[in-house]
Amino acid sequence: MGVSLKRAAIAGICACLALTGSPPGAQAQKATTLVAQDAWIRATPGTDVAAAYFTLRNPGPSPVTVTGVESPIAGHAMIHETRVQGGQSQMRPHEQIVVAPGAMVKLEPGGLHVMLHDLKQPLTVGQSVPLVITLSGGSTLQVTAAVRPLNAE
Asked: How many CB atoms lie within 10 A of CB 100?
């Protein structure tokens, strides 16, 4: 192989690495192993608010922090927690969720959940609702929630 051909091959390899390489810090984002399972939402006849539920599982070696959730079908989404205090059920915003290594966190009725406000349309049984879970560091996790009947648990 001639010198100019070797230089061309090396330049091609360098260009390929430049296209597929990651900027510093991106490896940590790609290493995020958070998994969302069993996402669902109750149907919303006559209201523009819904709650989303799912299970978060972290099979990785480091904690993963959920900092927010959004959905294109809602004007606003927030992580909330329902607590019973003095016999009264109270719902409060919950800033973030930390999922420890090897742990699971369930978002379920009567506990942690995602509130979707200002729905753009009523949600009907069988519909799929996209959710985007934002993680610390800026990475995201795409989730699809199934709309279930009002009496679903």
From this structure: 11
